[in-house]
Amino acid sequence: MTSVFVTALAACGGNPAPQVAAADTVVPVTAATVKAAEAVPFSVPAGAFPASVPALATVATTVKFTNTTSATPTATITAPGGTVTGITTFGSCIFTVTASTLAGVTVGQVITVHPCQINVETGGVQATGQATTVHILLQLGQIPSAPAQASVSIDPTTGVVTVNGVNGGTVTLKVTGAQ
């Protein structure tokens, strides 16, 4: 209803009321959306990785996705005592280890984390179509990372959210001050 009113007002020559995102945006990490997280270092607290991988589950880590334009994006997981590198596939975040200097994590090991998503703090951000900097968090399982920064824009007509140049889905828009 809000979009219809704003569009009608604009068609009559009036200035449409500013619109903002009604909530934050959740972007499932997929082969298409992982590009939005290219080279962003996400600091993840202990407990984000499954208990079946104690070398990662019990410590804080840093996760960084690279090579995201390839059919086989790479993830590097840095933990106290070593680094794990792997090919990433999706449906969840599925890391197949290709190199490891971390005791307890071996080449060929498959580490699955579900859900795997990027939480984009769009709630209250004005939909102008222009880029602005907001926080994004990588959520592995039930544990979100510390905030990182990303360039985000929200289309004022469609509510499409673009994160670091990648379509991250849509958000409901509301007129500023509307409940």
Q: What is the CA-CA span between the terminal residues?
A: 13 Å
The backbone outline, from C-alpha atoms, is elongated
Spell the H/E element sequence: HEEEHEEEEEEEEEEEE
Helix-strand category: mainly beta
Number of helices: 2
Number of domains: 2
What summary fits the major beta sheet? 7 strands, antiparallel
Regions with little confidence, pLDDT below 50 for 5+ residues: 1-12
Number of strands: 15
Radius of gyration: 19 Å
Percentage of residues in helical conformation:
under 10%
Mean pLDDT: 91
Strand content: 35-45%
Using brief descriptors, characterize the structure shown.
seven-stranded antiparallel beta sheet, disordered N terminus, mainly beta, 2 domains
Structural write-up:
The structure is a single chain. The chain has 179 residues and is mainly beta. The protein folds into 2 domains: 2-30 and 117-175, no CATH class; 34-115, no CATH class. The chain is 8% helix and 44% strand. The chain is built from 2 helices and 15 strands. The chain has helices spanning 2-11, 54-57; strands at residues 19-21, 25-28, 42-44, 61-66, 74-79, 82-90, 93-100, 110-113, 116-120, 132-140, 143-144, 148-154, 160-163, 166-170, 173-175. Strands 2, 9, 10, 11, 12, 13 and 14 form a 7-stranded antiparallel sheet that branches. Strands 3-4-5-6-7-8 form a 6-stranded antiparallel sheet, with no helix packed on it. The longest helix is centred in the first third of the chain and has 10 residues, at 2-11. The protein is elongated and about 60 Å long. The model is unreliable at 1-12 (pLDDT under 50).
